What we know:
Elements (H helix, E strand, L loop, with lengths): L2 H14 L2 H8 L3 H15 L4 E3 L4 E3 L1 H27 L5 E7 L1 H4 L2 H12 L3 E7 L6 H4 L3 E6 L7 E7 L2 E5 L1 H7 L12 E5 L7 E6 L2 E6 L1 E6 L2 H9 L4 E5 H10 L3 E3 L9 E6 L7 H15 L1 H4 L5
Parallel strand pairs: 3-4, 3-5, 8-11, 8-12
Antiparallel strand pairs: 1-2, 5-14, 6-14, 7-12, 7-13, 9-10
Helix pairs in contact: 1-2, 1-3, 1-4, 2-3
Amino acid sequence: MDTLSRMAAFVAVIDAGGFSAAARKQGRSKAILSKYVAELEDRLGVRLLNRTTRTLAPTEAGQAYYREAAEILQRIGELEASVQDAHVELKGVLRVAAPRTLGEGPLMEAMMAFVAAAPDVSLDLHLDDRFVDLVEEGFDVAIRITELADSSLIAKKLSPMRLSVVASPRRIKESGTPKHPDELSALPCIIDTNARWRSNWGFVVDGARYPVSVKGRVEANSPAAAKVAALRGIGFAMLPYAIARQELIDGELVSVLDPFVCNGGAVYAVYPHRRHLSGKVRAFVDHMAAWFADPERLAEIGK
Length: 303
């Protein structure tokens, strides 16, 4: 019996909370698992488990061994999965959630390029600016614009998210060009209630975060609607650069306060777990990361 098999038996017993439960879960006999763990203890020359007729608990040495062994087994599983995925034809339905903010723009081209390159994959795409629950709602992967917080999800950064404060030339002519973020509090602004910053816009002044409270006549839960309001001269708007990029290039909108505007977090691909990740999800995430690694494409969304 090899060391990895003994190690796997020990980890299974700890995970299940006992020999009987581990045997039922693995479809093996309790006697075999007990034998493997005893052989492991003999090989190491230490006791890993304290056993009584009613309880079973790892010793201090057993706890330390379990942490390392579980990590080793997970890495082996990931290695085997990655090798298998590399030789498995990509197929099946890929359920992706993405923000409407970008899903109808730069992300769409990237996602459809993946579909074109993987003819046996069917894309089930849901555009929604809310944070979906991947596990509860059955999504394989989600694209999110956020500042990454602690999470049980695995995340791969695709791009930084650039923000711009914009206004129409007419609004600039009427209100003037603000030179400091504080001036916005007295100017008409457009509130994107779907954005995490809402009416509390974040800037950087003298190297420190500098929030400014703004207000205006228009509030909408859509950056696209906020952009239209800005184009109409209704006020200043803080938008993802990707949303306003073409209008800025065409001169229909003007960016202001650029030295003070902080970024909007980043764009991430997130998925529930790494172990035994399916080939279609792995390929999709790798494709999206490679797509936005191109400096020209990155310029459409990030910095």
